[in-house]
């Protein structure tokens, strides 16, 4: 009788397609002040350049730069001012969960983090849950409308890979 192979070539193979690609272009709506604000400063230590200021956010994400358009997801998390010197400008560190509310990914999340230090940039997708399990990728953003200290819209281009759950 032949010895059983130590490594089964079928172990770890998916029964269905395991990896999917996600490409979305959406708009993040940040409202800093006013009746419809969707962020709140919870810590302002009073240091130069607002260093150490922490705010919580529940920003809305839409298919267009229009607050009356449908809400696809929400960016729930916080942002912290992480630059001490005005000579270095500003750098807000953003860790947040992008929680989807639309029917295709309802309840699934993307875990996003990175620095915001200008009108354009990139954040990392470092995980995901639900239908977007084990996501990884990037979010490229461009500020498309800005009313400083009031509100802005960032166009967010999401490019991610995620693992689908095999169907039994």
From TrEMBL:
Belongs to the plant dirigent protein family. InterPro entries: Allene_oxi_cyc_Dirigent (IPR044859), Dirigent (IPR004265). It is found in: Secreted, Extracellular space, Apoplast. It comes from the Eukaryota. Homodimer. GO terms for cellular component: apoplast. Dirigent proteins impart stereoselectivity on the phenoxy radical-coupling reaction, yielding optically active lignans from two molecules of coniferyl alcohol in the biosynthesis of lignans, flavonolignans, and alkaloids and thus plays a central role in plant secondary metabolism. This is Dirigent protein. The keyword Secreted applies. Pfam families: Dirigent. Gene3D superfamilies: Allene oxide cyclase-like. One of its GO terms (biological process) is phenylpropanoid biosynthetic process. Keywords: Apoplast, Secreted.
């Amino acid at each position: 009788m032949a010895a059983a192979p130590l490594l089964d070539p079928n172990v770890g193979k998916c029964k269905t397609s395991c990896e999917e690609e996600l490409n979305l272009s959406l708009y993040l709506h940040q409202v800093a002040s006013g009746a419809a604000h969707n962020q709140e400063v919870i810590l302002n230590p009073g240091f130069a350049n607002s260093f150490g200021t922490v705010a919580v956010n529940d920003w809305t994400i839409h298919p267009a730069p229009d607050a009356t358009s449908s809400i696809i997801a929400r960016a729930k998390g916080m942002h912290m001012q992480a630059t001490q010197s005005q000579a270095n400008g500003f750098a807000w560190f953003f860790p947040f969960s992008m929680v989807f509310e639309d029917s295709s990914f309802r309840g699934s999340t993307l875990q996003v983090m990175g620095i915001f230090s200008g009108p354009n940039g990139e954040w990392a997708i470092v995980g995901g849950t639900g239908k977007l399990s084990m996501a990884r990728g990037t979010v490229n953003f461009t500020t498309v409308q800005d009313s400083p200290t009031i509100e802005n819209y960032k166009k967010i281009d999401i490019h991610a890979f995620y693992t689908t759950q095999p169907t039994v």
